[in-house]
Amino acid sequence: MSHNASTIDSARRLQLGEMLVQNGRLTAEQLQEALGKQGVNGQGKLLGEILVELGFVTQLDVMECLARSYGVPFARVTPRIADPRMIDLLPRDFIDAQCVLPLFCVHDTLTIAISEPANLFLLDEIERLSGHKVQVVASTAQDIRATLQAYLPSANVFVIDEIYADVDVQEFSVVESEVVDIGEIEEASGQSPVIKLVNYVLYQATQERASDIHIEPDDHSSRIRYRIDGRLVSKLNPPYQMHPAVVSRIKIMAKMDISERRVPQDGDIHIVIDGRPIDLRVSTMPGKFGEKVVIRIIDSRNTVIPLEKMGMSKEMLDSWREVIANPNGMVLVTGPTGSGKSTTLYATLKRIFTRQKKLITLEDPVENRIPGVTQIAIRPEIGYTFATGLRAILRHDPDIVMLGEIRDQESAEVAARASLTGHLIFASL
């Protein structure tokens, strides 16, 4: 991280420290020690540099928080998402001096990784040199330089260690139709630009901890948005001509029938990114301008947020602790989709679970792993519903049961009876 970023004022530096503390990456005592060192003999060093030198945080921790504070997306840059042909758009000495990396170009918009999100003046220079509109993502200088070193000067092919390399190839098979001619769509969906775009969207969304990906067409373009912390954030606008091929690529991966575009379809994709298994639940819906796709991301990496960091007021938190301390009964968490029902339930279970209690969850699907807790996914397609699962669970002598959702009268009746017989039941509604 160079000293060009020294334009960050003291308030911004303090915000970086506060964000690291709030995210649990740093303690308040460590922050005060670093600020003291910076004031005494920091010799013009940035707070982030001092924190890394002291071993309190990593460069990755610092860059994630800096990117968030400047409203810039953060990405782990690797050869899998960078097109080496884009390097020729900028002078190599400029790339090395500024520690930037052109990633790929979609519809005349160049996505470029920078290591200094504070240096906004750099964008004008990149646009002038490249002749393209520029969209930036923040990344660590270490990742950018490592990716640059991975390429030979003569590289002229897109180097991609497929994100799905560890996935069974059958999950990319096409369900062919004997009636509808889908050859043209199959050919388009297999072209390199489409594969690169889909791979990048899935990779970027998981890195930004998005819960959902929305891909929807209008009369002029396709719009790609991520739901992050409950809000939809616009990310890319590929040309409309790419939309049918992108949808077909996703449907192939989800083992859907790509010849059927008149009715909604559902499917699943199982991928591995950086050695981490991730499940994707895919849903398509026909519309006026084409099919809309929503992808729910179920990432095993996601950690359970502590109850104290859920944003409750002190009074509300005290009341909630009193409610969940009861030995039996039923506690319902209600609200619209994306309002935090599951997050609240997971935080609650983490708070009350001890080795002296048996806790079983019944979910659709299991979204976060809680060590020591028996977590079960329902399978309605074979008759294993919330109601049948709960009946079976009650025969295993649980102290606490969590239902991902009460969907029907039968589930509600079984849960109510269980709460009256000495069990503590948590559920969303």
Describe the secondary-structure layout.
Blueprint lengths: L9 H13 L5 H14 L5 H7 L5 H11 L22 H7 L1 E7 L2 E6 L6 H10 L2 E6 L2 H9 L33 H7 L2 H16 L4 E6 L4 E7 L2 E6 L6 H11 L11 E9 L2 E12 L2 E10 L14 H11 L4 E5 L7 H12 L6 E5 L10 E4 L8 H9 L5 E4 L5 H11 L4 E5 L1
Parallel strand pairs: 2-3, 10-14, 11-12, 11-13, 13-14
Antiparallel strand pairs: 1-2, 4-5, 4-9, 5-6, 7-8, 8-9
Q: Helix count, per DSSP? A: 14
Mean pLDDT score: 78
Number of domains: 4
Judged by helices, strands and strand pairing, the structural class is alpha/beta
The overall strand count is: 14
Tell me which CATH architecture of the largest domain applies here.
2-Layer Sandwich
Radius of gyration: 25 Å
Output the CATH topology of the largest domain: Beta-Lactamase
Report the order of strands and helices: HHHHHEEHEHHHEEEHEEEHEHEEHEHE
Largest sheet: 6 strands, antiparallel
Gross geometry: flat
Share of residues in helices: 25-40%
The poorly predicted ranges are 1-14, 152-191
For the record, the CATH class of the largest domain is Alpha Beta
* Range of strand content: 15-25%
Distance between the termini: 48 Å
